[in-house]
Amino acid sequence: MFAVVRTGGKQYRVAAGDKIAVEKLAGEAGDTITLGDVLLAGEGDKLSDAGKVTVSAEIIAQAKSEKVLVFKKRRRHNYRRKNGHRQMMTLLRITAVGDSKAEKKAAPKKEAAKDNTPKAETKKAAPKKDTSEEKAAPKAKKAAPKKAAATDKAPAKKAPAKKAAPKKTESKK
Question: Domain limits of the chain?
């Protein structure tokens, strides 16, 4: 199944497994996003309702595109300006193109399985973070009086640097 998707002011024809470079989208490498603006969808020669189709993609990387040179010149005025620009882009791998109903039914089952395991890990990780914050707070309180004591003392003056001895030059006689 294929779809025509609009993102970043451009249109892309995509199918499952395709890799495309689009204007920068929010997210980090490995995140899954849904491209919502589907203009056209179909399979082979048959077209289907684009409103019911969703396109999900995985972010491969955030990168910069090729450099575009901007050169300005005014004839006979000795005026030349050269600039370059590299636009930020996102590399996407299309994971699925299909009906939103089928994906919504499959998604809760996967999420429920995923939610059970991370909850146990989150409960274990949370007390560790809390204890480290409690330990860090008293250290900060103890460190504050030391800083105040250090500022009360006048800084020691450094001895002036010695000047180098003048070079002896030999005169020709």
Answer: 2-126
